[in-house]
Write a structure and sequence with these properties.
By secondary structure, this protein is mainly alpha-helical. The chain is built from 2 helices and no strands.
């Protein structure tokens, strides 16, 4: 249990150090970075929605094909 806790503490500390370094060496302003993050999150959300909709349509077609033999009886 102690090894797992040490791992997560190291992960947290490493993440904090990495985030600090990124903020210090980034050439863009904070507002620019926030805008980029916001645009990317909107783009990512749209991509996830498109993939989910496509998968839903695929599963609905598969379900319809599986139900078809039973509905014709």
């Amino acid at each position: 249990m102690q090894k797992i806790m040490n791992f997560f503490v190291g992960l947290l500390v490493g993440g904090l150090i990495g985030a600090t370094v990124v903020v210090l060496v980034t050439p863009a302003s904070g507002e620019e970075i926030r805008n980029q993050i916001q645009e990317r999150s909107i783009q990512l959300k749209d991509e996830i929605k498109a993939v989910a909709d496509a998968r839903r349509a695929e599963l609905e077609r598969e379900l319809a094909s599986l139900r078809a033999p039973y509905q014709s009886q």
